[in-house]
# Entry
Amino acid sequence: MTFLTTPYLWLGLAAAAVPVIIHLIRRTKVQVVQFAAMRFLQATPQRMIRRQKLKQIVLLALRILTLLLLGLAFARPFLPDSAPVTILSKQQKSIAIVVDASASMLAGIKSEKLKEAAEEIISRAGSGNRFSIITAGATPQIMLDDGDAGQARAALATIRPTLFAGDVREAVLAADNLLRLQATRRAAQPQLHVVSDLQLTNAPEGVITLSSDAESFASENIPSWQNVVVLDGTIEEVPACRVKNFANAEQLTDVTLHLGQYAYTRQRVVLQIGEEKVVQFPEARDKMQSPGASYFEVRAGIDDFAEDNRFYCSKATASGEARRILSITNNSAAIFFVRQAFSISGAPFRLSEISPNQISDHPLSDFECVLLSSGSGLNRNAAEALKKYVEAGGGLLIAPFSNAAGGQDASTFNLMLSDLMPAKLLPPVFTTVDRNRSRRLIDVDYSHPIFKLFAEPANGDPASARFFQYFAVDAAPRQSATTLASFDDSRAALIEATFGKGKVLLWTAGLDAQWSDLPLKPIFLPLIHQIAGYLARPDIKRESLTIGRPIFLDGLNSSQEIKVVLPNGAERELPPRTASFNETNQAGIYRFYQQGKEASFAVNLDRRESDPQALSPADFLARLSRSSEDAQVAGVFGGAEVSEVERERTQKFWRLALLVLLLLLFAEGWLAKRTLR
Amino acid sequence: MNSTLRFLDPEILSNISGMELRARTVVEGFLSGLHRSPYKGFSVEFAEYRQYTPGDDPRHIDWKVYARSDRYYVKEFEEETNLNCHILLDLSRSMSYASKKISKREYATYLAAALAFFIFHQRDAVGLIAFDSAIRTHVPAKVRPGHLHAILTELESLPPGERTTSITAPLHEIAERLQKKGMSILISDLLDDPAEILHGLEHTRFKGHDVIVFQILDPAEIDFSFDHLTRFEGLEGEAPAVAMPMEMRAAYLARKEEHLSALREGCGVQHIDYCLLSTAQPLDFALYSYLAARSNRQ
# Structure
C-alpha cells in the first residue's frame, strides 16, 4: 500500500502514542478512600477486577486504532498495482470518451489500440456509470449520448477512422458541453477521457476552457509508427513532388509518377530520418504539357500509413483562382449591387452567399474576405467563428443593411461582435431618407490602399456620392481603429481596425441604394474591388484541395447540368450553376463535365495527419483549463505522479478508514461506559 | 434558596465562628420561615396581654377584651418547664467521614446546637450527652440562664471519638443514667447492627423517654457515588476492601436500604421518631422533624 500524503500517517502514529502514555500514567493509580459505611461494602472479586483490566486494554487498543485510522485516512492510502477498487466510490459517473477518428488512425493497428483503450476506460469505470462517445473527426460526432456500458461498447464498435484531419479541440468542447448538460439533469461525477494519438500537427492551439468540472484524462501514447509521405506536388513547368521520411530509420523508396492507371516514370530515393526531398520528373514534362493531360498521381513508400503515400495533382488546383468572397446576409437585396460588382466578366472575385445561421457549417478559412450585412441569426458560435477567422488573418467588412431592420442589425453587431467592431454603432443620424438633405464623403485618406486609386481624379471622385442616412458611431472607437473616410459633418463613414492578424472595416452607410446613391455612381465598382482586394488574405495558400473541403466550380457556370466523376468512378449529376461541390470525402481526381468543358480537381488527404510526432498526455492536459478554479486537477495515464492521484481517487480507501473509525468510536463509547476508569 | 434559608445550609454555617451564633442563625432563620407561632406554652399562669399578630393561634384571643375594646388581644402565659430534653450525640470515628466539606460530626454538632438553642428558648430543660464507646461528656438538663451557653461551649470542645463500632453499650448506660422522664434526641450515623441499636433505644423507651432519632449520613454513603477503582479503608478499623464501585453499587445500595429499613421499622414499632438526614440537607429539615415529633407528643 502506498500513501499520497505520508506526513498525515506519521502524525497519526504520533497521536496513537498519546493514549498509551495516558494509560501507563494512570494505570497504577488506585484511589484510596477512608470510608465509614464499610458494613454495606463488599470487596470486588479478583476475577471481576481482571476482567476490568482486560476491558481497559481493549479500550486502549480501540483508542490507538482510532487515531491510527485517522492518520491513515488523511494519508489517503491506495494500492499501487492492483485494479482500481470502485466499491467505495459509489457516486455515479458521467464519462465522456473522445475517440480520435482522424485519418492517422488508419495507420497500422492504431485504431484497434485506441478502441482497446476506450474499452478499458469503460471496464475500469464499471457498469453503474453513464457514458458518452464522441468522435474527433473533421467535426465532432456524438456516437452515444448518456448510455450504459453496453451501449458504449456498441457505439465504439461502430467507429471507423475517417479520411479527415481530426479536430480534437472541437470534440473536447463538444464532450465538455455534453457533460455540462448531463450535470444539469442529474448529480454525477463528470469525467472526460481523450483517446487519441495526440498528433502534434493536430494538437489544439492555446488553452481549451472547459465549462464542466470534469476530471480529464488523456490516453497514453500509441507506439510510434513508421511513415514516408508524399507531401505535395506541382504540375507547373516540371512535374515534381516533395517526399519526407517520418520514420525513425533511413528509408529507401521508389517514387513513381502515374498517369491514369499506369506508372509513367519512377525514381529511387534514399531518405534519412526526418529528411525531405524534392523529386522531379523531367521526363514527364512534355507529356504533362499536352492538352489531354491535366493531372497525375505520385506514389511513394510502403509503410504503416498507406493513405498518404499517394498524392494527386491537377492543373485546376495549381492554376490561379479568383479570390473567394463570402457574403453573409439574410437579405439578398442588401448586396444586389455588391453581387453585380463582383460578377462582372473578368473580375478576379468569386462571391458566395450564406445566411448568418450557416456560418458554423462553412469553413470560413476557404474565403479570402467576408462581407457581413445582416445581424439576424448571428449567434455566439457564428460570432466566435468570425472572430477566429479574422484573428487568423481574414478580412471582414461589416456593412449593416440600410433598412428598417438595420438598427436591430447594428445592435446585434454591437453585442455579438463587440471584440471585432472598430467602433460601436449608434442610431442613424437621420431618422428618414430625405433626398434634399445629404452628406458627402469629404475627409478621405488617399494614402490608404483602398483610396490610393482615387488620388488620381480620373479614376473617380468619392465625394460624388450623396448619403441621405447613415449610422453614427461611438465617439471613442477602439484604440487600433482608424477612420479612413468621413462625411462632411465629420462623422465616420469607413473605419478600419485590426484584430489578430486580420483586418475589419466598418462601413456606416450600407452598400445598397436606399441610404445613398453610391452604388449608382461609377466609383462604386472600383471602390468595392479595392476594399475586397485590401481585405483579401495575402497569406492564403493555393494548396491542393484536401478531403472534406469544397471544390469551387468557377468555370462551370452555364445553364447546363454538371456531371461529376468521383475518384472511385461513381458519377453524379449536379444542377446548373452549382457553385461548389462539397462531397469530397475520398482522395483522388474529381472530374467535372459541362457542355464539352472539363475541369479536373485533385483532392488529397490532409498532410497534417502524416506526422507521427505527438504531444505527451501531460502536455495535452496542460492545455485544458476550467472556468471554476476549484475544479479537479487533470490526471494522466502513464504519468507516475499524477497516476497516483488517479489511483487513490478511484480506490478511495480513506472512506473505508473513516467508516471503520466511526464503528470503532461507537465501540469505544460502548465499552468505555462499561469500563472502570 | 432564599436569603434566610441560606443560613441553614451546613456548609455556610461552617464558615460562621461560634457555636451560639450558628445555633441562633439556624433557629431564627427557621422561625422566620414559619407561618405559625411555635410557642404554644404549657403553663396556665397568666403573664400579660399582647396585641394579636397574624400567626398567633386564634384560640388564645381574649374575646372579652375584644368585646370591650373592639381589639384583638392574646393572652400570654408564664411558661414553665415541663420537659427534660437530652441530646445524645455520637462521637464515634465513623462520624468524622466527609465526602465534601462538612463531616457527619460537624453536621451533628450544628444540629445539636440548633436543637439546644431551640429547646432552651422554649423554656424547656435541655442537656447534652456525647458518647462514643462510652459517655464522654454529660451536661444535665437544666433551664437556668447560662445553661445554653454551657452546652454550646461543650459542643465546641468535644473530644475526638474512639475507633469503636458499637453504640449499644453507651445507649444502655445513658438509659440507666437518665432518671427523670423526658425526651432523648439521638444524633448518630447508626452504622452498627440495627438490632443492637434498637435494643439500646428500647431500653431508653422502657425508661419512659420519648426518643427522636436523627440518622446522619454523608451523600456518598447514601448513593455510593464513586466511579474509580478504589481501595476503601474503614474508619473504625474494619478490613480494607478493593472495589469497583460501578460493579458493586447495586449490592451496596441494597445493603444500605436493608439497614435503613430495619432501623425505620424498629423505630416505628417502638414509637420512636426516626429521621434520616444527609449532610447536604439544610438543618431546618431536622428542626421541622423535631417540631413534628413534639406535636405528636402533646
About this structure: Residues 58 and 73 of chain B are 10 Å apart (CA to CA). Chain B touches chain A at residues 94-97, 104, 189, 191, 217-218, 221, 224, 226-236, 238, 241-248, 251-252, 255-256, 259 (CB under 8 Å). Confidence is low (pLDDT under 50) at residues 1-7, 35-43 of chain B. Chain B is about 40% helix and 20% strand.
